Amino acid sequence: MGTLSRLQAWEFRNLRHLDLPLGRGMTLLLGRNGQGKSNVIEAICYLGLLRSFRTQRASDLLRWGAEDFTLRGEFSGVEPGSPASVGVAQGTKRYLQVDGAPVDRASEFIHQFLCVPLVPEDVELVKGPAAVRRRFLDIAITQSRPGYLQDLQQYRQALASRNLILRAPQRHGSGVMAAYEGLLVQHGRRIEAARRAYVGDLGARLSEVSGGLLEAGGPQLTVSYLSPGLPREGEGITEAGLGEAIQRALERNRERDGREGYTSVGPHRSDLTITLGGRPLAAFGSEGECRLGSLALRLAVLAIARRDRGARRPVVALVDDVTGELDAPRRRAFFRALAPADQVVVTATAQPDELAGLIDAAYGVHDGVLSSL
Q1: What stretches of the chain adopt beta strand conformation (E)?
Q2: pTM (two decimals)
């Protein structure tokens, strides 16, 4: 099984130049707040997903005064034919490389290793808007279904075009609208089918990983998927049936959509409902319960990634100081659930007692510089 064996970063956040060897097992990054621990986690995440968990603007990732940043990752133990390195340089433009050769499309670059971040911002999976949960689902699904990203991209392009037509119908004939609606049906049905299958899998894994985080015999976490205007999850509808349902919904809502200027039905309007004991967690859960729910969701994603990984791709769990509010038994359950991952990188201001015997390498972090402990 391959591993991410080396991370290099230049001018990323406060990391002027980082050259970090990584091995299998658990790596601990220890230091005070504001020293750069989270920046190391973020660099690995960006290299795997081309996305930060803290910002959507690449300019925020530049070290103060720098014009561009560069990240590079090396892999060891991969199968023949699999990439041995990836790199990204980001300034006014973004340049991607796989094995030193440039690639033009993000879909050819991302997910060379499976990356699952567990970060404080994850509480938004429970308490935030539906768009956060859709993005969570989409990122998780692309790690096991490479074609899913292309469907998402094509769907979003068709959606933007239909919305433009709705706002200025006099400029376009009915055939143009029908063509874009056909694309929405074609790609939307695959998106819907993939999401529904993944949520079913997620629910099964959630019951397995949340046992140690929740009170024994107490309320249980569940997840369900809902797309307004389309058949509910679990009604046994096929992918073809989903396509027919999307087509009918687009036709049924076309007049209203024209008045409002946007498409009101489809996968872009769906949501993931998270409940504890049958009650919506966001509305009725305490702050602690919402945080436990978000941790359980990420652990379930990690379990699915470990199960579905090929021999070509390592699984890296990135844990950014998320256990501070957990009591000792829950911290032990959390770290036990993490331990089977190929690689785990954990940040902390002080070493948790529950990590005793689990750490394979440790580094102190001070002002963006790492030193072996």
Answers
A1: 3-12, 15-21, 25-30, 69-76, 85-90, 94-98, 101-103, 114-118, 221-226, 271-276, 279-280, 315-320, 343-348, 359-366, 369-372
A2: 0.91
Residues 6+ apart with CB under 8 A from 257: 166, 263, 264
Tens digits of residue pLDDT in 133-176: 999 999 999 988 878 999 999 999 999 999 999 999 888 877 89
CB 219 within 8 A of CB 276: yes
**Whole-number Cα distances in Å, 275 to 134, 220, 278:** 16, 8, 5
CB 302 within 8 A of CB 255: no
| Element containing residue 114 per DSSP (H, E) | strand 114-118
CA distances from 354 to 45, 326, 334, 336 (A): 25, 12, 10, 9
Describe the crossing of helices 174-209 and 239-252 by its angle, rounded to 10 degrees. Answer: 130
Q: How far apart are CA 60 and CA 57, in angstroms?
A: 6
Q: What gap in Å lies between CA 150 and CA 248, rounded to an integer?
A: 24
Q: Hey, what are 338's tokens?
A: 């993490």
Read off the tokens for 254: 């076309």
How is the beta sheet containing 271-276 ordered, strand by strand? 221-226, 271-276, 279-280
Please tell me the distance from the alpha carbon of residue 98 to that of residue 84, in angstroms, as a whole number: 8
Query: What is the spatial distance between Cα 112 and Cα 78, in angstroms, rounded to a whole number?
Result: 11
C-alpha–C-alpha distance, residues 191 and 213, integer Å = 31
Of 104-108, 329-333, 366-370, where does the model show the most confidence?
366-370
Cβ–Cβ under 8 Å, residues 227 and 269: yes
C-alpha 31: how far from chain center: 26
- R_g of the chain, CA atoms, integer Å: 22
User: Partners of 27 in the beta sheet?
Assistant: 345, 361
Degrees (nearest 5) of the Cα angle 59, 67, 35?
Answer: 65
In the predicted model, is pLDDT for residue 1 greater than 80?
Answer: no
What is the C-alpha separation between 188 and 93, in angstroms, rounded? 30
CA quadruple 38, 42, 43, 48: dihedral sign: positive
Question: What pLDDT score does 309 carry?
Answer: 76
Q: How far apart are CA 36 and CA 48, in angstroms?
A: 19
Q: Which among 316, 317, 326 has a CA at the least distance from the CA of 353?
A: 326
Count how many residues are written for the chain: 373
- CA pair distance 86, 44, nearest whole angstrom: 11
